From TrEMBL:
Protein name according to UniProt: Ubiquinol-cytochrome c reductase iron-sulfur subunit
Entry EC no(s): 7.1.1.8
Subunit structure: The main subunits of complex b-c1 are: cytochrome b, cytochrome c1 and the Rieske protein.
Record-stated family: Belongs to the Rieske iron-sulfur protein family.
Length: 193
């Protein structure tokens, strides 16, 4: 039979060992969670679009590339009817930079209001700049409806990121895989059928 003092020491030692094991395991297990940098470099990331007001754009770095989230106004969406005949690939059917079937439409997105594209020109990898204000402007057509201008070689894109005809860029801006988690959040990097 074991004396009570020895049993107390064994229980105390066992409990201390368990506490030390848990204290060691928790940081180790937490370290297995991908860092924000690792998520930005490849894994799907959740993007909160709830703060975007109509006409605003935000940029998120994903896989080392800028991804644009543009909340289009009704006027911006209406401009796509005007540019439809001016763009090289209006329904994104070209295959050099394949567009997912769910974005092969006039607005190139799941929901017309929100555009999600990789902000890199398909010509030489420059990043186009916003030119949302309609009307005549330097380096743009006199009947400009709003969109994007690649300042390096002059390619222009409409508000669905579709390249205009006869531009250096061979294709529309790339639509990455994504889906809506809910009305406030998009999961970038994964499409749910």
């Amino acid at each position: 039979m074991m004396d009570s003092q020895r049993r107390t020491w064994l229980i105390a030692t066992g409990a201390a060992t368990c506490v030390a094991g848990v204290a060691t395991a928790v940081p180790f297990v937490e370290s297995m969670e991908p860092s924000a940098k690792a998520k930005a470099e490849g894994g799907p990331i959740e993007v909160d679009i709830s703060q975007l007001r109509p006409g605003e754009k935000m940029t998120i770095l994903w896989r080392g590339q800028p991804v644009w989230f543009l909340r289009r106004t009704p006027q911006m969406l209406a401009s796509l009817n005007i540019t439809q005949s001016l763009v090289a690939d209006p329904l994104s059917k070209r295959t050099q930079f394949p567009t997912p079937p769910w974005a092969q439409n006039q607005w190139r997105s799941i929901k017309p209001e929100y555009l999600v594209v990789v902000g890199i020109c398909t010509h030489l990898g420059c990043s186009p700049v916003d030119r949302f204000t309609p009307g005549p402007q330097p380096s743009l057509p006199s009947d400009w409806q709003g969109g994007f201008l690649c300042p390096c070689h002059g390619s222009i894109f409409d508000l669905a990121a579709r390249v205009f005809k006869n531009m250096p860029a061979p294709d529309n801006l790339v639509v990455p895989p994504y889906h809506y988690v809910n009305d406030r959040k998009i999961l970038l990097g994964e499409h749910k059928a």
